[in-house]
Amino acid sequence: MIAFTSRRVVRQSYADRQRHGFTLMELIVALVLGAILLIILVGVLRRSFAEIRVATSDDPASHRYSLLLEQLRRDVSNARRIDSGSNRLGLEGFIHRDPETLIATQRPARVIYEIRRNGAQSSLVRIQVEIPNGSPVSTQPWIELVYAGAGTLLVSSNQVGVLTESDRLGSRPEDRIQLEQTRYAIPSALQIIILDQPGRIILDHTFSRQRDSS
Predict the structure, then answer these.
(1) C-alpha dist (Å) from residue 121 to 107, 148, 151, 160, 173
(2) Spans of all domains in the chain
(3) Each residue of 165-200: pLDDT tens digit?
(4) Cβ contacts of 108 within 8 Å, gap of 6 or more
(5) Spatial separation of the C-alpha atoms in residues 155 and 164, rounded to whole Å
(6) pTM here?
(7) Higher model confidence: residue 106 or residue 50?
(8) What is the CA radius of gyration of the chain?
């Protein structure tokens, strides 16, 4: 009778352990693994949120840089004549912009980017003069502030050949003849570096002229 009772107690003890689930060691291991997975998940989420914030942030400096880059790219790619000097870049071609709408009209124009100083402050400006009859108009030029705080403008180019008659650069047929009377040797790639007043780089970009021969 005593032996039978002992066996029954042993069976009950084993069944009780099965009903109560994990042992203390198993519980500790599960907690450690769970904590490791949670740390990894938090790190991934932090990186994802940081990338989203950068992609969707309305950073004024980034916006100004994008506008500057796009304006220079449009003017350089449609230029038929390029010259440069100290803190100055001159372009001539189908690069006219409407002063009120700021929309590119692709009419002939002479444009000069230059650094202008007013006391201790300096800025990059864009000066535009129309060329309706093959020569600049004698009216007041349109001066546009491009980048406040710019202190230095550097320009360098590669060796190039002479433009061909098929180089249309997106110009309209009625305007094309006005600048095709003279062929200009201009660079097919132009590096423009703009520094702020303390000497930090605002822009360092090489622009390639994409020619449309259609």
Answers:
(1) 33, 8, 8, 36, 43
(2) 2-56, 60-208
(3) 434 444 455 544 444 444 455 677 888 999 999 999
(4) 92, 93, 94, 96, 130, 131, 132, 134, 175, 178, 179
(5) 24
(6) 0.60
(7) 106
(8) 34
